[in-house]
Design a protein that fits this description.
By secondary structure, the protein is an alpha+beta fold. The protein is built from 18 helices and 20 strands. Its EC number is 1.1.3.15.
């Protein structure tokens, strides 16, 4: 493992048998896993380059069990790593050798559907797609749709603030979650938000969504459901190169058109996806845009014409508009399957995640091509072009010495480039361990300390998901210290409490 994790606490490891016995008293039956072979399925998440078996796995079934497990671990100084479906692509659910992995997979019930208020209340183990499947007979759906939506859990979506192809128009998880039930590390159960539109007071719900399991364990989620639009149409537009496709994206948004989704694939990704799903993607283009509009039929017709006009002005060489729902879904089938499709053309790939201003797309794509040459590694681009959320897939072979390290260095340079042009390190995958050591590229030491103070407010003992997000984790007492120089405190005129 080239990314370092905290050294295991040998005193805790020496107590492993006793910890397992105590937790079995809280979660009986098959709720505690400690057999080395049975722990193997939990040794990694979607960032499979890094693996570490957990000390133990605990699979609670009730909120009371979650509370009791966390309360016991808090009292005994045992670390806890929350885990949903394990599809995280940033190592957010990577276990620790001296920690309990708290699996929330048994929390998979839909608790309530309220069509009048347009909300659904679900447990965190419910998959993203299952929410839509539950409400689609009444003409509703849940908008955020990650490519892993068939497997990823809503609890994990909350932890990472997951996105998807339709988040350009309808927002990410944070824009579609109205409330959560949360268990803190000391076992306290709290509720933030609810079925109402906006909570009062401080926006603690906004702090929790995207907190990557550092602040608490989500045990219930209230999400917004939307009525399906009257109609939806998609258009495939081919360009000679990614730069011209990127220029088209910027102009579409600049002219005030907000598509339901706007995705881009480069030549490598197009060929891989077409060979995998055979949906009729053009193979003689350098880049492909999939643009979807939804709403009243007349509006869709008008917007499709406007998009075609803008695409033509930016050098589009092919264009094909869906004529029915089957064809529209076929257009998306290739995009949704792009990641596994690329897995057929390379032994391994490293999926990156960074976000940039849309107008910088042509420049960034051009510079990524040069980085690919410099590192001697291929790259396939499949990403959310409409909101500038890049997902370069760096192709490498882990069996060849040094290739993983080159892929990591290549990925780090891509993320540095994102920040350089005014973007951010992550758009939807989170920081986890993958981007942890790059946080100082984007944030100052003061910024990072302020973020860690929030962590300390929720988890003073730093037992929840340690080793993630922060490159240097200060003790909470250190963050609370005041610097005194020559007997003088800063701002002596202010009252001290």
């Amino acid at each position: 493992m080239s990314i370092l994790m905290p050294d295991p606490d040998q005193a805790v490891l020496a107590r492993r048998a006793g910890i397992a016995e105590a937790l079995r008293g809280i979660v009986p039956g098959e709720g505690v896993i400690d057999d080395p072979d049975a722990l193997r399925p939990y040794e990694s998440d979607g960032l499979t380059a890094y693996r570490q078996p957990p000390m133990l796995v605990v699979l609670p079934e009730t909120v009371e069990q979650v509370s009791a497990v966390l309360r016991w671990c808090h009292a005994e100084g045992v670390k806890v790593v929350p885990r949903g479906s394990g599809t995280s692509l940033s190592g957010g659910a990577l276990p620790l050798a001296d920690a309990v992995l708290l699996g929330m997979g048994k929390f998979k019930r839909v608790l309530a559907i309220d069509y009048d208020d347009r909300v659904a209340v679900v447990q965190p183990g419910v998959t993203n797609l299952a929410i839509t499947q539950t409400v689609e007979e009444r003409g509703f759906y849940y908008a955020p749709d990650p490519s892993s939506q068939i497997a990823c859990s809503i609890g994990g979506n909350v932890a990472e603030n997951a996105g998807g192809v339709h988040c350009l128009k309808y927002g990410l998880t944070t824009n579609n979650v109205l409330g959560v039930e949360l268990v803190l590390m000391d076992g306290e159960i709290v509720r933030l938000g609810g079925r109402h539109l906006d909570p009062c007071g401080l926006d603690l719900l906004g702090v929790i969504v995207g907190s990557e399991g550092l602040l608490g364990v989500v045990t219930e989620v209230t999400v917004r459901i939307l009525p399906k639009p009257e109609s939806a149409r998609a258009v495939l537009v081919g360009f000679p190169d990614p730069e011209s496709a990127g220029a088209c994206v910027a102009q579409v948004i600049a002219e005030g058109i907000i598509p339901a989704g706007m995705e881009m694939m480069d030549r490598t990704a197009i060929h891989a996806a077409e060979a995998f799903v055979n949906v009729g993607y053009p193979l003689d283009v350098g880049a492909l845009l999939i643009v979807e509009v939804d709403g009243p039929a007349a509006e869709c017709d008008y917007l499709i014409e406007e998009i075609a006009r803008i695409a033509g002005a930016n050098g589009a060489v092919t264009s094909r508009t869906s004529t029915d729902e089957r064809e529209r879904m076929a257009f998306w089938a290739g995009r949704k399957a792009a990641f596994p499709a690329v897995g057929r053309i390379s032994p391994d790939y490293y999926c990156m995640d960074g976000t940039i201003p849309r107008r910088r797309l042509p420049e960034v794509l051009r510079r990524m091509e040069q980085l690919s040459v410099d590192y001697g590694l291929g790259v396939a681009n499949v990403f959310h072009a409409g909101d500038g959320n890049l997902h370069p897939l760096i192709l490498y072979d882990a069996n060849k010495p040094g290739e993983l390290e080159r892929a990591e260095a290549f990925g780090n340079d891509i993320l540095r480039l994102c920040v350089e042009v005014g973007g951010v390190l992550t758009g939807e995958h989170g920081v986890g361990i993958e981007k942890r050591d790059l946080m100082p590229v984007m944030f100052s030491e003061t910024d990072l300390q302020q973020q860690q103070r929030v962590k300390c407010a929720f988890d003073p003992k730093l037992l929840l998901n340690p080793g993630k997000v922060f490159p240097t984790l200060h003790r909470c007492a250190e963050l609370g210290r005041m610097h005194v120089h020559a007997g003088q405190v800063p701002f002596p005129e202010l009252p001290r409490f």
